Every structure is written in structure tokens, then in C-alpha cells.
Amino acid sequence: MSVYDILNSSFIKWMDVPEGDRDIVISSRVRLARNLGEIPFPHLLDQITGSKSLELISHAWKNTPGPLLADMDMIALDQLSPLDRQILTEKHLSSPQHADATCAYRAILVNHDGSLAAMVNEEDHLRMQCLLPGIRLRECYATAQALDDEFEYNLDYAFDEERGYLTACPTNVGTGLRASVMVHLPAMQMSGQLNHVLQNIGQLGMAVRGLYGEGSQPVGNFYQISNQVTLGQTEEDICTYLQTVTEQIVEQEGLLRERLKTDLKYQLEDKIGRAYGILCNARVIASDEALSLLSDVRLGVDLGILTGISLLALNELMVAIRPAHLQKLGGREMDAIERDIKRAEVIQAKMTSVK
Amino acid sequence: MSVYDILNSSFIKWMDVPEGDRDIVISSRVRLARNLGEIPFPHLLDQITGSKSLELISHAWKNTPGPLLADMDMIALDQLSPLDRQILTEKHLSSPQHADATCAYRAILVNHDGSLAAMVNEEDHLRMQCLLPGIRLRECYATAQALDDEFEYNLDYAFDEERGYLTACPTNVGTGLRASVMVHLPAMQMSGQLNHVLQNIGQLGMAVRGLYGEGSQPVGNFYQISNQVTLGQTEEDICTYLQTVTEQIVEQEGLLRERLKTDLKYQLEDKIGRAYGILCNARVIASDEALSLLSDVRLGVDLGILTGISLLALNELMVAIRPAHLQKLGGREMDAIERDIKRAEVIQAKMTSVK
Predict the structure, then answer these.
(1) Helices assigned H by DSSP within chain A
(2) How many CA atoms lie within 13 A of A295 on its CB side?
(3) Pair A298, A306: CB distance under 8 Å
(4) A273: distance to nearest CA of chain B, Å?
(5) Closest-CA residue of chain A to B342
(6) Which of A121, A164, B251, B285 has the fewest CB atoms within 10 Å, i.e. the most exposed one?
């Protein structure tokens, strides 16, 4: 399995829908930020120090006898087309900033199913992530930590006894850990409780962002909730805390969904039916509108109002309708209008094939 | 065939789609206003004079040996429930004003397929109409005239050698004739030419109204175009003139449709596809929105973009989604929300059965 397989597949691990998982949490992710001692942080790198950093990490990847690293493929970003770099971002394997850069000492590592990835020389020298479907923060952390251990076998991390892992941005110092969950909260939105809940989450020291993390606006009622504090708590504490907050949100969203189903039966079924009807019949559709309608359809599937559509298909569509994926599928560069047409085509094919 | 059959049927003659007719003109209608000599105009009637008027007309209906009158059923309006009176209006067989009144001397006559109807003691003593599918003004006039002749066999019309037929409202004096066509002009609307065309029609001495004539706002790009002048022209001239104007409008709308199909292919298919998708999947839908979406679907059928849906089904739906028809079908009085739910159900059933 190579990076190219991941680039050409519509599926990666987090899109899976494990049996018994609540449908409200789409995915969980733990990311660890690490830096190499004796090498400047990435924003200070030049060609020589950058290459040195890449070389050390590449050496660790090749020479560590660990099963996780052995399952990973590594590729320099300048070996990928801009479109392919964007595809990695759309699949949540790379940051937009990382995908934008073309300098030769940036790279990415991905395992066979995309559940493990690492960016080399992004904001930190090494940012590892484990990304899994559903609410599995502890498993994400355990796997990310195991990968971290494999890397550390052949790498000297910048570590301070008092402050912990040192990072380019002080907000990551300490554990270097960011844990996040992607949640779908349409009922909170519809019942007008969303802003209140999001404010509460903020007061609990959590950040709320859109589908693509920092700087992305929420669309389609999809929210990424993550810890803000990385210092003064253990990794386990951070994950447990986020897990607890998430479980509370899930419970509240679940209750509101049941209430909507009873109190606004027809309006809810109408909204969901219309979304389904438009997605199956539109010929031109913009990204935000599509995500918003997919959110309605997802709610319909979760509540049993729509049948025959799988959450896996909806997860795949959320990524398949992004600009780079559409252009990859179309085999050429496309302007916004062409993408809107292609997007409608992709959605229609998926929706009518699964129905 | 009785009035009750018409009340319970979803079909009446004007909904038909004659082979070879252009789809832009839905129906043609000719109405003749007549009054009885020696009896005051209806707005001055009391119980005695009103009954006299009704009696004279009823006598003519029963005793004239004509085939048209023999095919007509007559019923006093106070014999019908308010819902049934409204149903006659929704089918275009009665005016809203006539259906509203409950005095015992008002009545209605309808033939077996609803192509001929007459109101007794509405604004004039007798208002006969012939209503046919497509653009058939001459046939409408010939039939209305034949019915008029049958009535006149046993009735004394108020007629003045110089002014012609006398009517309650001076705008009808002369021929007492109003000819109208119901046209569907979505391409004019989409291409921004509608206002200009409607202004021109006004300058040609024609009136433009909505689906339900005087006082009704246009919805769904359906327009009723009719003559304003009834005096100083022969009946044939009035019909020929409206026919010519209509043919020009049809030609222009046809050209604009072809242009839209070429220039805005995707946007047009998108609009039509979404309308179809919403109509098939909505659970709650208001009347105006439904008509507007039915207009888009109709255009899709006319242009061959949607297949498997008949114009007849769409014509039937235009009437079946009106408040009285929905309540008749539901078997009970319904408030606006209940009607919106029933409307969505009726549309979905029709759209998915014909697809």
C-alpha cells in the first residue's frame, strides 16, 4: 500500500462506521507534535537544516523495526502534484498549510488505510496523527503513542524536564497532544441550542472548529471539538476529558433528535426529504450547499427516516465532493462551475446507487 | 353525468392535452354574458325577482330541445356545500364571487365533461362559458354561441340595437364576450423578458391576470390573457385578435425556451431537476411553492428534460392541490398546515405513479 493507493481511493479508515457506534461522532483523532533536538524549528529551516531534519526522520522510518512504521509509506511533498497534496488535505491526512508548501524537505507518511499519518517539517518537525471512525480517543492515543515510541527509537526529541515536549508554537508545549472529535449536531442547530452549547464547550477549555480544523468555517452542522490545553495535564487526562465532554454532547444531541422527531415530525421529514430530493436531482451544486444537504440526509439516515443509504457512503461523499477529489476524478483542472456540475454528478451517482 | 360527477372527478375537459397542441397554451375559454329583459340586473335582485330569473333560465334549460342544454346538469348553489362550491371555482367552472354566495336564486349548469358551464345570477343573469384544452378559441366561441342560441330559444335577452347585449358592468356591454387563454411562460420569466411582453400585451388592449382571473396574482408563470374590449368589434374579430396575439406569445416563448436549452443547459436542468426532486420528496408544501415547482417540472416535460410525466397529470395536479380539492379528498376540513401536508402527499403520489 502506497500513498498513491490512498490518493486514488475514495475510502480511508475514518469513514468506516463501526457496528454499535453512535452516529453522532464521525471520527476521533489524536495528534502528537514532536521536534528534533539541535535542529531549528521548521519556520527557521533552510535547505541544509531542512534536509537534515528530513534525513533524520527518514532514517528513523527506514531503520526502526516497529510494525507501525513498517506499514507506513513516506513521500516528499515535491514528488506530489498540487492536486494530490490537496487530496491528502481533503482526506484529513495533511494540513492545508503543509499541502501548500513545495520545499523539498517537507514530506508525509501514511499507513495502508490512512488511520496513521505523519507530516514532516510542517509547523513542527514531526506531527503524527491517528484518525479513527467513531468515538475512540483512547485507541487513537494508544496508537499515536506507539508510533511515537517507534520514531523515538531512532530520534532525539527536543524535550525539557519541566515543560515537556518543545514545540514551535507555545500552545503545543508539554504533551504536544491535540485530541479532537468530529461531531454532527443538526438537532442542536435546528432547536436553536447550538450557540449556547458551543459557548459552554469553549468555557470548558475546548475549541470548536469546522470540518477542516483551524480557520475553517463550520458547514453542514459538522464540528471539530478539540482540547486547547497541552500543558499540566497527562495525555490520558486530556483524552478522558474530551471523551467525557463528547459523550455529554452526544447525549444532548440524541435527546434533541428524539424530541424533534416527535414535536416536528412533518417539518423534519420535509427537510430531510427535500434534501434527499435535491441531492438526487440537482445538476449544479456548490460545496457548502451539498454539505448542508448531506447533513440533512445523514440525520434522516440516523433517525431511520431514510433507508437504504449507508453512513459510509455519506462519509465518502463528504470527501469525494471536495475540489481536488472532483478534479482527480474528472482527470483535469476544473473551474468552480465545472466542479459544481461534477459534484452534482458524483452525488447523484452515489445516492442513487446506494438507494 | 351530474354536477356531482364533476365534483368528484380529478379530471375535466380543459386538462386534456390534444395531440399536436403546443404545450405553452394550457386552455382557451370564451364566456358570454347575457341578461334577461324586464328583470333587474343581479345586484338589484331580491328574493322574488331573483327567483323569477332563476325560474326563466331553468325553464329554458328544461324545455329547449338543444343537444348542449340536454347535456347539462343544473343545480342551485344552496344545494351545494361551501366546499363543493369552492371545488367548482378551483376547476374554473364558477367564479369565486359566485361560489361565495348562498342565496337561493343562484345556480350553476355544467355539461358532462366540464367543457361547458353557465352561472345563473352571478354578475349577470347568465354567464355561459366554453373551456377547452389548448388554443381553440374559435371552437370555444362556436360552442358558446350554439349554447347561447339554445338558451335564447326560450329566453328574452336584454339587447339594444345600438349597444348590443346589455350587461351589469359596462365593460361587458356589446358582445358580452370575454375570450381568454391560459398560457405558461417560464422562459420569458427566466430570461427577464416577461414584464416587457406583459406591458406590450396591455398596450394591445389585452388584460393579463393570474390562474384564477380577476384579482388573482400570477404564480408558477401561468398567465390568463383576455380581451378588454367587448364593444365595437365582432365576436369573431375578438377571438381572432386574441388568437393572433397568443400565437405570437407562443412563438416568442418557444424561441426563448430553445435559447435557454442551449445557453443555460446545466442551470435549466438543475432548476428542473431540483423542482422534480422536491415535489417527489417534500412532506409539507404550500400552494404557491407547489405551483412554482410544477411550473419548472412542466417546462422540463415540454423540453424533454423530464420523461415519463404527462402534461395531463400536471394539469390535474394544478387543481388537485387547491384547498377545497385537498379537503374533499381528505374527507374533512383542514387548516393550512394540514393542507400543506396533504398537498405534499397528493403530489408525491401523482409524481411517483406517473414516473
Answers:
(1) 3-8, 47-63, 67-70, 82-90, 96-100, 137-152, 186-190, 194-203, 235-263, 265-281, 287-302, 311-320, 323-330, 336-354
(2) 21
(3) no
(4) 5
(5) A266
(6) B251
What is the model's pLDDT at position A228?
Answer: 86
| Cross-chain Cβ contact B284/A266 below 8 Å | yes
Q: Which of A270, A281, A341 sits opposite B283 (nearest CB)?
A: A270
pLDDT at B21: 67
Spell out which chain A residues touch chain B, with contact meaning CB-CB distance below 8 angstroms. 266-267, 269-270, 273-274, 276-285, 337, 341, 344
Give pTM, 2 decimals.
Answer: 0.92
Return the residue of B nearest to A267 by Cα. Answer: B284
Contact B274 A266 (CB under 8 A): no
* CA distances in angstroms from A144 to A77, A152, A174, B193, listed in the order given: 22, 12, 16, 63
Q: Read off the pLDDT band of A251 (50, 70, 90).
A: very high
Q: How many CB pairs under 8 A join A and B?
A: 54
Chain B residue numbers touching A351 (CB-CB < 8 A): none
Q: Which residue has the higher pLDDT, A214 or A109?
A: A109
Summary mean pLDDT of chain A: 92
Crossing angle of helices A265-281 and A336-354, in 10° steps, is 120
Nearest-CB residue to B281 (from A276, A282, A344): A276
Nearest Cα to A221, choosing from A275, A167, A176, A278?
A275
Cα–Cα distances (Å) from A11 to A91, A320, A325, A353, B142, in that order, read 9, 9, 12, 16, 69
Task: Give how far A259 is from chain B: nearest CA, Å.
Answer: 18
Domains, chain B, ordered by start: 3-255 (3.30.590.10), 264-354 (no CATH)
**Under an 8 A CB cutoff, do A270 and B280 touch?**
no
pLDDT at residue B154 greater than cutoff 90: yes
